[in-house]
Amino acid sequence: xxxxxxxxxxxxxxxxxxxxxxxxxxxxxxxxxxxxxxxxxxxxxxxxxxxxxxxxxxxxxxxxxxxxxxxxxxxxxxxxxxxxxxxxxxxxxxxxxxxxxxxxxxxxxxxxxxxxxxxxxxxxxxxxxxxxxxxxxxxxxxxxxxxxxxxxxxxxxxxxxxxxxxxxxxxxxxxxxxxxxxxxxxxxxxxxxxxxxxxxxxxxxxxxxxxxxxxxxxxxxxxxxxxxxxxxxxxxxxxxxxxxxxxxxxxxxxxxxxxxxxxxxxxxxxxxxxxxxxxxxxxxxxxxxxxxxxxxxxxxxxxxxxxxxxxxxxxxxxxxxxxxxxxxxxxxx
Length: 333
Known about the structure:
By secondary structure, this protein is of the alpha+beta class.
């Protein structure tokens, strides 16, 4: 008898309680939204614009609002993301009934004007419907365009792509507030070459090209190597002669009595450095002379080998063919 009144009371209490829970959740989201935006503003003041942009985007995801949209656009402006900044600022200003936007409309309009000094308009058409328009490595739309696209100023690479056609690329120099119109004519990708005709295949495989005679190249390489080694021998010989001359100079200084018999010290005490230098030059001269002799021998060997190789008789060859009404063979032995 009391089941229906009790059930009705439970439903009534639930209906009364639900709006209270919803209001509490909304209040919490508002506080979190304010906290994120305040954090983003503090990061902007520290010059940490990329981190501030993340905070503003989280606030917008948590509780969408015109204020968050405007803060995101202002952070994008600081990061030189001009096209995104313009879209966000214009979106925020379109919500003039929002109290925060109304209070900051003058500053937001000034920001739009500053951003637009970095932008221009680009219109592109092509001979292929549905072709993709790429600007600065990003897909900007498909042709034909419903309206001109926004592009940043400076040198911009513009490319039009379509399946089955060769992509066409241009680099444009774009100035602020310019209205640029470009037309592209795409060429079809050429078809692959057709296979060889049966008539050609019936003739049989092509004969291999005769091997090139490399004897002349080998002889030229040996001759060059012989002269290079001989030049090295001459350089080493010149170095040995120079070291010997320096050695004689140091010996002369060491044996100079007027230079090395001054004071109470011995000749070695006064001129020992000249003696040591002479010994070092002697060793260097011996090494260079030995190297020159070795290089000279190697050069002579290379010259002799080249001469003996060039004097060898040519390999025997036999050639046969038709002559008049008969056939014959000849050869070189």
